[in-house]
Amino acid sequence: MNTFLLSSSLALSAAALLAPAMAQTTAASAAAPVTAAEPAAAPAADFEPGQRGRVDIGAGFSSLTGGNSNWNDEFVRGHVGLKPGTTLNWELSSQRHFDQRGTVGALSLTQTLSPWWYMSVGASSGSADFQNKYRGDIAIYRKWTESQQWVTGLALMKSASRDGIHRDTGITASVAYYSANDWVGEGGVVYNKSNPGSVEGYRGFAALTMGREKQHYFTARIDHGKEGYLPTGAIANGAGDQVGFQSTELSLQWRQWLGKDWGYLVGGQFYRNPYYNRKGLSAAVFFDF
């Protein structure tokens, strides 16, 4: 059965974008590489004096069970502050998943609207069957309390697969808390509808980031819930109908500065559904400018 999956955990949300201090791509494809993901808290559009941007260059490897081939990914991604209140995030990734090789590119723009509001818009496209032909995202964020430590977000996503059949629409609601003690906590829910068949899925996620800029960051993220379809090319060994199933994903990441403007990034990922498990490792070097 050649089906297609939108991984709801990759819907644009507060956990799918990072503040400029911890730049991240707007995860682009339905089967986008977890090697390129750095889950953390809601993006802030504030411009940091003396730091315009960051570039990550890295690779990842994942082993899959159930007769599926291993994944290999190479990526370059980053962000740049175009002006105070405006940040551009970008990514270019080469992915070999399910015996196919494809390239995906993504761009997103985070823009301050007022002292209390900011928004993000993004678009991406991939060349392989397991990637999206197109995906568009738009999100709005609101800061709360006098200290502005609480941030709520609402995001919308629309995508279409390259098979010309499968389409997805997603809505994400999130809330994040920025502690004065160098940690950020976030949680949210994702609703996704996959077509054909109007297959509905609900997922919940939580993320915790600890650390300080120019020192280190540790990030942990977990999400669980219902997905619509398996990715094109995935082997399910005839189990069930491969539609509307439960899955869980956990990711851990450490970003360490070795100098004022450079360092390394390492991460691990684990994902499972009723048909196969995936374990992955990723590594990158990064440069601030």
From TrEMBL:
<dbReference type="Pfam" id="PF19413">
    <property type="entry name" value="YaiO"/>
</dbReference>
<dbReference type="InterPro" id="IPR030887">
    <property type="entry name" value="Beta-barrel_YaiO"/>
</dbReference>
<feature type="domain" description="YaiO beta-barrel">
    <location>
        <begin position="54"/>
        <end position="229"/>
    </location>
</feature>
<feature type="signal peptide">
    <location>
        <begin position="1"/>
        <end position="23"/>
    </location>
</feature>
<protein>
    <submittedName>
        <fullName>YaiO family outer membrane beta-barrel protein</fullName>
    </submittedName>
</protein>
<keyword id="KW-0732">Signal</keyword>
